[in-house]
Amino acid sequence: GSGWWGWGRRGGGGGCALARRGPRRGQCGGGPGSWWVSWGCRGDPTLRCSTSPGWRTRPENQRWTDGLEALATEIRACTACPLHRSARQAVPGEGSAESGILFLGEAPGYNEDLRGRPFVGAAGQLLDQLLAGIGLDRSKVFITNVVRHRPPENRDPLPDEVAACHVWFERHLAALRPAVIVTLGRHAMYKFFPGESITRVHGKPRRKDGLVIFPVFHP
Ligand code: URA
User: Fold this and answer.
1) pLDDT, tens only, 75-110
2) 50 lines ligand 1 (CB under 6 A)
3) Does ligand 1 lie within 6 Å of residue 105's CB atom?
4) Angle, nearest 10°, between helix axes 159-176 and 68-76?
């Protein structure tokens, strides 16, 4: 059904790991500083997400997942910016169109560079927990980054690198047709709302260029 979701951190210290809000309400008593995750219908039919079982296997949805592996192969061969020289390998992204949710992180780190997969380090463990808290796992969402090669010493991606990598974002959009793009952190949010403050925009779905963007904090 139509829905929205997000997470945040309550002000202050301590508390439980996950809590749900919305129709599947299940607060876990998190105090200040705890993470919350929410997935709920806000009655806006234009913010639609395809979370129904079997979504991916229906013939009309099959085409969104076809070609993802071919696209990954193209990304692994990308030399459009200098990052491919220092990185061990590309991290094209992984998952499916099943939930209609595309997660956009910042850049591969040490572990991602080593394994060629997104969010497999500490941030990835938290992301997995947050997804589990709303009844999803990474096979049902698609996860990728603003840049697909690790920047040296995990520095911030440079504007030229983000620009060079934009073509792969476009290709993933065309393949996945996500209902919602969840931007993880500042750099992914800047792609859509340059100059905005993450603390001001996080947790609020907004439309941009025909897309629904849901900025949240980086796990
Ligand atoms: N942080 C990111 O932004 N992306 C990853 O793939 C891993 C950690």
Assistant:
1) 999 999 999 999 999 999 999 988 899 999 999 999
2) no
3) yes
4) 160
